[in-house]
Structure formats: C-alpha cells, structure tokens
Amino acid sequence: MRPPIATEPFEDLLRDLAPRVLSALARRHGQFDACADAVQEAMLAATVQWPTDGIPDRPRAWLTTVATRTLVDHWRSDSARRRREETAALDPTRQPPDPGPDPDPDPDDTLVLLFLCCHPALSAPSQLALTLRAVGGLTTAQIAAAFLVPEDTMARRISRAKQLIRDTGVRFELPTSRDRTNRLAVVLHVLYLIFNEGYTATSGPALTRVDLTAEAIRLTRLLHRLLPSETEVAGLLALMLLTDARRGTRTDHDGSLVPLADQRRDLWDQAAITAGQTLLTRTLGTGPVGQYQVQAAIAALHDEAPTAEDTDWPQILALYDLLTHIAPGPVVTLSRAVALAMVHGPTAGLTALGTLDADDRLTHNHRLEAVRAHLLEQAGDTDAAHASYLSAAQMTASLPEQRYLIRRAARLHPPA
User: Contact at 8 Å (CB) between 332 and 323?
Assistant: First the structure.
C-alpha cells in the first residue's frame, strides 16, 4: 500500500484506469450498463478511501475487485436474476474471484469502449455524455457541470444511452472492418465536439473549459496510441495541440475575449506548438488527407506567424478551398469567408457570407452575424456593423463573447 495522500493526484490515475476496468468487466460479464454503474461506484469508493489509506500497490486490481463485488451484489439483490445466483460463477457462498496479477492493458478493450460509446444509434449529446462517463471517467455531476445542465438531466441522458446500448444488443467487440471507418469518424467527431465546447464554451461566465479541452486531448492521445496508423486521428490530435497552445492568451486579466490578431504570441505554448507541428509533419503524405489534417495545417500557419500581419492568408485560403471539397459545411464556408476577406478584401468576404443567409443551420448561431459585423467594419459600413455586433451579442449565451461584441459595437457608436 502506498502512503496516504492529502491532495487528489490520483484523479488522473482513476481516469486512466476507469476505461480499462470497465472494458474488462464488460468483456467478462456483458451488461455494459450494469458494469458502467459498478465501475463508477468503485471509483467513488477510491476517492473516499485512497486519500486516507493510500493508493493500493495494484490500483487497477483494487478497482476491478470492488467493481466486481458491486456487480455481484447487484445481481444477488435483483429478484429478476435469481437464476444467476444458482450458477457456479455466482454461487452466493463464494466471494468474488481475486483478479490476480494486474493484466497487461488490452488496447483493443479501450478502443472497443470508445466505439461502443459512440454508437451511431445514439444521439450526439448522448455520445458525448457516455464517452466522458465511461471512457473519460468523469462523474455525472462533472459532466453536467461541464455542459451547464442539471445533474438529474444528465443522469437521465446517460441512463437512456446505456439503455439503448443494451436494447440494441451490441456485443462488446470491435465493429467489422466495413463499419469501422464510419464508426471511427463518429468517435473523432465526438472528441472534436468535446474539445470545441471546452475551447469556446457555448454558454456561461467563462470563455473556456480547461477540464474539457484537457480531457479531449487526453482521450485523443489515447486513441492515437491505439491507432497510430490512422492519419485523421493524428490530424485531430495535432489540431487540438496547435489550437490549445493559444488558450492562455485568449482572455485578458478580467476575462474579456482577446481576438487572435491581438493576442500575445510570445506567450503561446511553444511546446504544444512544436508537438503539433511534429505530429502533422510526420502524418501528412502517409495516407488520405482528411478534414482534421487540413484544419491542423491551417492552425499551424496561424501559430507559425510571428505577427498577425505575417500570417500566410493566401495559403490559408487555399487550405479552406481544399476543406470545402473534403468536408463542406456552413462553418467551413464561414471560416473561408474570413480568409477570402483577408486576401481579396472585405467585400469578397461579405459576398461569400451572403450564401449562408438561407442556411437554417446558422439561423440561431451568433458567429455568422459576428463575422458579418467584423467584415462590415473593415468595409467602412459602421452603421451596419454596429447593428450586426449587437445582433450577434443577443444570440450568444457566452458572457465573454457578449461583452466583446457589445464593446465592439460601442466603439463604432459611442454612447452620448
């Protein structure tokens, strides 16, 4: 037994062990939902006991044993499972088996778990929640806080997701090779959404949620370790590193948003930039080029520019043109309009934005109006820019973004 600890350095250890313990139980016993609940109870027990008793010498075996006992106790108390108690494996006179020596981590188990949590039968919010719960090891309360919803709402969402997994009869195994590519795309999209929500929170008092960006990067690192030859996994990890490198300069001392052009580039995380660039350089050209590799290349060009004026906007525009062919969508068109304006002037960018006015996917998104306001200001139409800034401010639930947009509007029309 390791010595007791006063703080909580074991949280990272628990998050790392949680998917491995859950994978082992689900593979051995089936019933993903019951196994997931048992692992959560084991983790809660660890947070209570380990600070005073110390971290066990074999923490994974400790968690496995506690989770197994919880699982067996659940089966024993459930009248619908009386017949299970009559089997040798669940003989009520027997204690749960000692898990034996810590087994070598089976990378496929964690990979299976990621694919299971991102099952296409689940809605996107359910995929996010279940991934953070089962693979990330976060509690329901932590996930609810991250997405600013009541804990009972998140608990129901997770419960429905586990129920659907059970009802679909999905086996705890990797999908067939034919389905794996599509399922991997879903996994990457879920990790991408987790990172984006952390990097620019959709609502609340803070611009960023470091817990979510860190968790997204951790899980993507794990996926890259499990699938080192998948170029889009490497591309997504590079994108996260290159983007997160700027996080510390995106707000000033009072939490106000600082746009990219005004950030202190000397304060960007150079280690993260170097890691992202190295990963991207090693990946490009080794397989099909996908959307995350292209986005990572764009992020790298921003990070490499010593000043905003030195940004290679023509190359960025060319990459957005490529991204439009690979993964067309309104967000890509929106970002491309900014690059177009930087290369050919604000009028060209505004013309490109006009193609999005009828797109229902951006009807309630403040970013279209925010970009429009910025380009109108560049074009000298201050009245229209003022109106667009205020319109964008009314559409966002992020307090830092609201304050920034209102300040931009006030600069154009100072109050009397």
Answer: yes
Long-range contacts of 137-144 (CB under 8 A, 24+ apart): 137/14, 137/15, 137/16, 137/17, 137/18, 137/19, 137/43, 138/15, 138/215, 139/40, 139/43, 139/44, 142/211
Count the alpha carbons within 13 Å of 41 in the hemisphere toward its beta carbon: 16
Phi, psi of 258 (to 5 degrees): -115, 115
**What letter does residue 305 receive in the DSSP assignment?**
-
CA distance linking residue 386 with residue 376, whole number of Å: 9
Assess contact for 397 and 202: CB atoms under 8 A.
yes
| 3-state class (DSSP) for residue 251 | strand
Average pLDDT over residues 159-183: 82
Residue 84 has pLDDT above 50, yes or no: no
Give the mean model confidence (pLDDT) for residues 194-207.
88
Within 10 angstroms of residue 92's Cβ, the number of other Cβ atoms is 9
Q: Which pTM value belongs to this model?
A: 0.80
Positive or negative, the CA dihedral 85, 88, 93, 98 is negative
Spatial neighbors of 43 by CB under 8 A, at least 6 apart, are 14, 18, 63, 137, 139
Cα separation, 400 vs 205, whole angstroms: 7
Burial 304-340 (b: 16+ CB within 10 A, else e): ebeeeeebebeebbebbeebeeeeeebbbbbbbbbbb
Per-residue pLDDT band at 78 (split at 50, 70, 90): low
Distance separating alpha carbons of residues 259 and 60, to the nearest angstrom: 44
Closest CA to 116 of 173, 34, 191: 173
* CA gap 180, 188 in Å, rounded: 12
